[in-house]
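If you are new to this repository, start here. Below is one unmodified record pulled from the training split, so you can see the exact layout before writing a loader.
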Amino acid sequence: MSVKTAVQVTIYLNESDDWDGILRLLRRENVAGASAFHAVAGFNGRNNVHRSSLVEAGGNLPVVIIFVDLEEHVSRVMPQICHLAKKRLIVRENVVIEQNVLE
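And here is the target side for that same chain:
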């Protein structure tokens, strides 16, 4: 098995942010893989905790986008990501790919 290092980026957003636009950007830029997760509860920064209910309005529930690719691809898209996710927490970390689908 070939072990490869890559970069994983996690973006913490709210429903009201353009998370779908970020996913479309990552697809257009041919990033290896990305997923958006809709949370049932959470908070951004120092804000209050928001929880889902049967009738949710206001777009304050958290959405987390995680994407993974090689360093050169991540570095290429990060300026656009930072522009689309202004004032949002973005975490970047090196990861080990155990099963390679990046080629």
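Two things worth knowing about this chain: Residues 71-84 form the longest helix (14 residues). The mean pLDDT is 85.
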